[in-house]
Recover the amino acids of this structure.
DNA sequence: CTGAAAGCGCTAACAC
DNA sequence: GTGTTAGCGCTTTCAG
């Protein structure tokens, strides 16, 4: 069933049917109704390919993230997909993995689908330096479609970023620990992404400001798996820390397991703050204090910017959202 | 940059360029190379819309699930997307939510995108009765494209199902609890989906077989949120149970919180088994015994079937995979 | 308000 | 091997 048959049945030309499909005001209500009835009776759906060819858009947005199985990204994808759909767009999802080259391939590949915009989720696509050469592929992409980053900052024409102020959040988290008298705060992370680096800087700034030395042996990078973290810490000859700031809840959960094995009381002997305020945080026992990184808020901002941008309106190229420390039992001073 | 310009620059006809794009063997290696070079130099990408129009396929698969933020579905989506991409297909994602009508809309809407196949994730799309009238919308969809269900069973032409034998898994989980001497096993669930009902049947069968009465007051349905579960149980005048079989890890985690509040020892006073073997299970303290529902395996099966089906080969319309109880601390008898 | 007709960029049957 | 040409189903001028 195509537009010709509908035109035939409705006794009008295909141009009119097309106008009805696109709800053009140039058609009389009467014929509109008639055509619509015919369309429904035959439950006709315009061919999106032909439509895409004509309009050069299939009303789809590309969503790229390293891994949807990760709770943070899953939440972002869920939120973006819902809102975009309400706005009339469908989403093509591409999980690139974390490897550098794969991310580049991801962006290049998804662009071939002629998406109307690209949303890139997760700071691992960005670089510490917003002008870095290695994120040129994002700027390339932005030459074709507007690009939106969730929690990353890349400077460039047609690139729009919504990010959580991880630096400040980490700064206050560390400060909180310092205020409670902790002096040996372990920084635990699983990546060197833009965001992770921001957190580290915030952490170090807090220490420095408090006149506490930043110790190399209190900075650890490891895989974000609960048992890996636990085992890694257990294997260390001695971990000389009285608090931990972890850049992911999973890492913090691992620390909790470690503390339990060691017989260390939490938070008395070891205070812990995680990041993302995920379901893991409330699953932990004792429940984990965690920084809420406001994914939903970031997504809303991106959606709003995207709507504006797609209507040719100007948009801020960067919006910051304050992260927010959720106090639970692991910092129950 | 389109096929005409490339043809022009390469000094061949558009037919030849098209053949090169599709790697037809009817082109001499020499011209192939020449054309390819021109394409690269101008980094030309064939217009997928035009291609779709001609071939009536854009090489995309529709992925529908209630909510990607749920770990089970996120894992499924991640797995499916990766493998499908390797096979040359991209994915359109649609998160329908759990409402009945919304699921129907989801399927109808995504079909309009002229996907090559539809994968439906989660048993909430199915019904206890594989021939039920209410899942007619799936059969309707199957008239247009092959439909694959992850963990649901609907009978119908062009519908293919991969499912975890939740009945058996629940049966053995409950049996395990009975074997350890428990007689008052709480069944805790968050839904009446096909899969949840299977679990309940398995649970009841185990009790019946052991001559243990199935008590109405030991079957509870509630929201899958850790604190909701905890609070619900705490508010009950008295919960007369010595074990819990939960259909989701999140529910089981809530029970754990409840036990802790009540001062009940786990597993001594209360043994617990969760479901899905998610990250939550190892995050719990004590770590949660949980049934592994084999999402990855189910996805692999669907992928394999899909490949066969898309090549016109025959495929089993239903494949079962054994769920598998992972014993951890909450059943450490 | 409506219709005729020229694309949109590609595929594939057919001719050479 | 390669080129010509007729679609694929829609949008959009341009006429009326």
């Amino acid at each position: 069933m195509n537009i010709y048959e509908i035109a035939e049945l409705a006794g009008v030309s295909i141009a009119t049917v097309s106008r009805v499909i696109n709800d053009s005001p140039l058609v009389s209500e009467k014929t509109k109704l008639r055509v619509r009835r015919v369309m429904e009776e035959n439950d006709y759906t315009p061919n999106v390919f032909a439509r895409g060819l004509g309009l050069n858009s299939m009303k789809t947005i590309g969503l790229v993230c390293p891994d949807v199985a990760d709770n943070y990204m899953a939440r972002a994808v869920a939120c973006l997909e819902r809102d975009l759909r309400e706005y009339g767009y469908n989403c093509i999802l591409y999980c690139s993995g974390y490897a550098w080259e794969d991310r580049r391939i991801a962006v290049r590949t998804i662009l071939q689908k002629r998406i109307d915009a690209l949303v890139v989720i997760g700071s691992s696509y960005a670089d510490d330096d917003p002008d870095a050469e290695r994120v040129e592929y994002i700027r390339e992409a932005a030459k074709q479609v507007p690009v939106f980053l969730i929690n990353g900052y890349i400077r460039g024409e047609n690139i729009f970023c919504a990010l959580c102020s991880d630096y400040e959040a980490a700064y206050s988290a560390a400060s909180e620990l310092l205020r409670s008298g902790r002096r040996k705060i372990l920084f635990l992370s699983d990546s060197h992404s833009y965001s992770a680096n921001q957190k580290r800087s915030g952490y170090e700034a807090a220490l420095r400001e408090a006149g506490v030395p930043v110790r190399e042996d209190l900075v650890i990078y490891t895989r974000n798996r609960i048992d890996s973290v636990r085992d890694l810490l257990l294997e260390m000859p001695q971990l000389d820390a009285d608090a931990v700031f972890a850049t992911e809840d999973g890492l913090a959960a691992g620390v909790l397991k470690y503390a339990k094995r060691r017989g260390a009381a939490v938070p008395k002997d070891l205070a812990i703050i995680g990041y993302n305020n995920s379901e893991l945080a409330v699953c932990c026992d004792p429940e984990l204090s965690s920084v809420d990184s406001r994914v939903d808020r970031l997504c809303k901002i991106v959606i709003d910017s995207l709507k504006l941008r797609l209507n040719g309106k100007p948009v801020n190229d960067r919006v910051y959202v304050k992260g927010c420390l959720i106090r639970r039992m692991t910092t129950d001073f």
